[in-house]
Amino acid sequence: MEDEEQQESKDEREMRQQLLKAALPHVKEHGWSVAALQAGANDLGFSRSASGMVSNGAAGLVEYFEDDCNQRLVEDLEGRAEELAALRTPQRVRLALRARLELLIPFIDSWPQALAIQASPAQMGTMLKQRAELVDDIWHACGDTATDYNWYTKRGLLAGVYAATELFMITDYSPGYADTWKSLDRRLEDVKRIGSATTEARKYANGLLKNLGSLAEWAQDSLVNAQRERQQRSRP
C-alpha cells in the first residue's frame, strides 16, 4: 500500500512538471496565470481543472521557470568549463550573469508581472531561496572557495548586481539589450571597487539585505512603468 502511494505521488509530481513545462509557451498570451496553466493542460489532453495540480497557481509557474533557468545555467556553465578556466574571475562572473539574464529574454514582456508575483509576501521566501541558489551556483562555477564571512559578502553583492540588472533589463529597448550589458558592466565595476575594501563591502552587502523589504514595491513600480512604456510604444 505504501509503495502504491509513493508511486502515485511520483506520478503526480511528474504530471505536475509536465503541466508546468507545457504552460510556459502560453505565458506570452496569458501572462503568468492560471489561464496559462489551463492552456498547457489542454495541450497535454488534460481537463482544464488539471491546473489545480499547481496549488499555488501563477506563483508556482514562476517558481518552476526560475528553478528551470537556474538548472539550465548550471548545465551551461559545466559545458563551458574549459572556456571559463581561460578567463579571469570577473570575466567568469560576467559571463555567468549574462547567460542567466539572457534566459529571461523570451519572457521579457511579462517579466515585470513575474517579479511582482515573486515579491509578494507569500513568495518572498521562495524568491530569496532561488536567488541564493543562483549566486551560489555562479560562484561555484567561477571557482570560489571562500568559507569565511567573504562567502556571504560575495553572494550578497552578486545578488544585488543581478537584481538591479534584471530590473534595468525589463525597460531596455536597445538592440540586443546592449544597454543592459553596459549596465551590468558598470555594476560589476562598482562591486569590484567596493570589494577592494572589505569593511565597505560588508556594509554594502548588509544594506542590500536590509532593503529587501522594499522589493515588492520596487517590482510593482517596475511592472506599471514597463507596461506603460510598452503601451506607448505600441501606439501608431
Specify the number of helices. 12
Strand content: under 5%
Mean pLDDT: 83
| H-E string | HHHHHHHHHHHH
- As a whole number of angstroms, the C-alpha radius of gyration is 19 Å
Largest sheet: none
Tell me the structural class. Answer: mainly alpha
What are the low-pLDDT stretches, counting only 5+ consecutive residues below 50? Answer: 196-201, 208-214
Percent helix: over 70%
The total count of strands amounts to 0
How does the overall form come out from the CA principal axes? globular
End-to-end gap: 64 Å
Family: Belongs to the COQ9 family.
Domain Ubiquinone biosynthesis protein COQ9 HTH: 13-41
InterPro entries: COQ9_C, COQ9_HTH, Ubiq_biosynth_COQ9
Main location: mitochondrion
Structure write-up:
With 236 residues, the protein is mainly alpha-helical. Helix content is 75%, strand content 0%. α9 packs antiparallel against α10 (178-195). The model is unreliable at 196-201 and 208-214 (pLDDT under 50).
Gist of the model:
The chain has helices at residues 2-23, 27-30, 34-43, 57-79, 81-85, 89-102, 111-118, 124-141, 149-169, 178-195, 198-210, 215-234. It has 236 residues and is mainly α.
List its salient traits.
12 helices, mainly alpha, 236 residues
Please describe the topology of this protein.
Blueprint: H1 2-23, H2 27-30, H3 34-43, H4 57-79, H5 81-85, H6 89-102, H7 111-118, H8 124-141, H9 149-169, H10 178-195, H11 198-210, H12 215-234
Keywords: Lipid-binding, Mitochondrion, Transit peptide, Ubiquinone biosynthesis
Domain Ubiquinone biosynthesis protein COQ9 HTH: 13-41
Organism: Coccomyxa viridis
